Automatic annotation (TrEMBL):
Native organism taxonomy: Bacteria, Bacillati, Actinomycetota, Actinomycetes, Micromonosporales
Species this protein is from: Phytohabitans maris
Name recorded for this polypeptide: Glycosyltransferase family 39 protein
GO MF annotation, one: glycosyltransferase activity
Residues annotated as transmembrane: 65-88, 135-157, 164-182, 188-205, 217-244, 250-271, 292-315, 321-342, 349-366, 372-391
Keyword Repressor among record annotations: no
Length: 527
């Protein structure tokens, strides 16, 4: 017998144990004699196993890119020009609520804007840390919109394809309306994020009910209503999708949705009491507003038409298409219907429906070839360019507050006073915020008529002294700030301001900016 053969035979050790040598086979790793008796023998992976691992790693990266790339795109587009236009009236209302004490904030919310009170609380806490500059006030909305784009990508992953998520998420990111409200210090971007998260969780529920996912869904519904109560119309879209695809889930979905509504009951009741002062100015829905939805909502007629056409082409009875189509259309239809009988229809109240449109686009393009999908997405990006430019213009925000401040700061002289129009067309009561936010005290005209400052003792609007003549005193130059464009800057000026100013002052100069009339009055020479 050869030496090699004898080496494979069992060997008895002095203590009576028998050592059986391991067979020497190709591909095996020999364990050294000094290794522990229980050492694991590592075998090289087969080519099939290595290929499977590579595919798993590639799929994991694709899933990450599907939500990461849209988030980065949305963040970049929202950051560009973020502090360009000044804060408009609604954003100044946000800023104003960050300037008061916590106790005063609660009093303010009891009188106005309770339906978005949680947003004000969030921004009040944020500005305590990061300040109240335009950048600090708008950045939370930018982050929320970027996160919403990521969730659209995750929805695509949940529907079975990272390509759906990537294409849908990028379509969401490039829409001008996404940028518009990602650059605004208001709660609508947060409502979009909460709606996207709730939709993602509902898809998970439709795959298999678990108590944890149901509670998370309820929390997302609660967050959505806390950011904007009208956004709860999303539940009609979700309920329809469940009824079509998983009818047996309705009895479990309904308690989950109701659990999210229960914590919102106080906000709903207070909001109902404030409805007359908050939204009574909104016109009833008519044919013009219905037409404007298609041309204005997405940031332009061309991009809007393209989105609607692509979304319509993607409609089918597939689970993802049913969910996305319901989200895109049902809240809009319901709010328009309600808006025909009560003052409630505004396009931004259904901003979150862009999540549905984006998912529909992702579903459609994912079924096409790569070249066709990329070309379509590039065409959408090209169509969105005019809208992307427009949303960064002051005119798109209704009021050019920075132009107002520039005019006053340019010609300001020590001793100047200022008079505001409180009953102007639109939120004229907030005119004082323009000056208070942008002009330092040493470059700010004296507020001649104020008695009680804004946001004091639960009153949002400032109170003014009724004896205008005595308050004007010997002031030589008076600025007049009006919301709206007036041929005569003193026309329809509230209270006794118009008569006293016309009697004592001449209009030295007046300007129109987007949404404002600014005038400089000089005292008449005594006769």
């Amino acid at each position: 017998m050869s030496r090699a053969a004898r080496s494979q035979l069992p060997v008895a050790t002095p203590n009576g144990e028998v050592h059986i040598p391991l067979p020497r086979r190709v591909g095996e790793v020999l364990v050294p004699e000094t290794a522990a008796a229980d050492a694991t023998i590592l075998l090289p992976k087969s080519p099939t196993e290595e290929e499977a691992e590579r595919k798993q790693r590639r799929a994991a990266w694709q899933r990450r890119i599907a939500w990461g790339a849209p988030a980065l795109a949305a963040f970049a587009l929202c950051v560009i020009g973020l502090t360009g236009p000044g804060l408009w009236a609604d954003e100044l209302a946000t800023w104003g609520n960050t300037t008061v004490s916590w106790a005063e904030l609660w009093r303010q919310l009891d009188g106005t804007d309770a339906t978005i009170g949680p947003y004000y609380v969030l921004i009040r806490a944020w500005t305590t840390v990061f300040g109240d500059s335009d950048l600090a006030l708008r950045l939370p909305s930018t982050l929320a919109m970027a996160a919403a784009a990521a969730v659209v990508g995750l929805i695509g992953n949940r529907l079975g394809s990272p390509r759906i998520g990537l294409l849908g998420g990028l379509a969401f990111a490039i829409l001008p309306i996404t940028t518009r409200y990602g650059q605004e210090a208001r709660p609508y971007a947060f409502a979009v994020l909460a709606a996207a998260v709730a939709t993602l969780l509902l898809l998970r529920l439709m795959e298999g009910f678990t108590l944890g996912i149901a509670l998370a869904y309820a929390a997302a519904v609660m967050a959505l209503g806390a950011m904007h109560i009208v956004s709860l119309l999303i539940l009609a879209a979700h309920g329809l999708a469940v009824a079509i695809h998983r009818r047996k889930l309705l009895w479990r979905w309904t308690p989950s949705a109701l659990a999210g509504l229960v914590p919102l009951i106080p906000i709903i009741l207070i909001g109902r009491r404030q409805q007359g002062t908050q939204i009574s100015w909104i016109p009833l829905t008519d044919l013009h507003q219905i037409e404007a939805f298609g041309t204005d909502f997405f940031g332009g007629a061309l991009i809007g038409g393209a989105v609607i056409a692509l979304g319509a082409a993607a409609v089918s009875r597939e689970r993802g298409a049913v969910m996305a189509a319901s989200l895109a259309a049902v809240p809009v239809a319901l709010l328009m219907l309600l808006g025909s009988v009560t003052h409630i229809w505004l396009q931004r109240y259904v901003l979150y429906t862009i999540v549905g449109w984006a998912v529909l686009i992702g579903l459609l393009l994912a079924k096409r070839g790569l070249i066709a999908a990329v070309a379509t997405l590039a065409a959408l990006a090209a169509l969105s360019l005019p809208g992307q430019v427009a949303v960064r213009e002051p005119s798109f925000r209704y009021q050019d507050t920075k132009a107002v401040v520039a005019l006053i700061e340019r010609d300001y002289q020590p001793g100047d006073g200022i008079v505001y129009g409180l009953t102007d067309r639109g939120p004229g009561a907030l005119n004082r915020d323009v000056i208070a936010h942008y002009l330092p005290e040493n470059r700010r005209p004296t507020d001649l008529l104020v008695d009680r400052p804004m946001r004091t003792d639960g009153w949002m609007v400032a109170s003014e002294h009724q004896d205008v003549a005595s308050r004007l005193g010997a002031t030589r130059r008076v600025w007049v700030l009006r919301l709206g464009e007036y041929g005569d800057p003193l026309d329809d000026l509230d209270g006794g301001k118009k008569d006293v100013l016309k009697e004592r002052y001449d209009v030295a100069d007046s300007w129109w900016t987007t949404g404002y009339t600014v005038a400089l009055l000089t005292r008449k020479d005594p006769v």
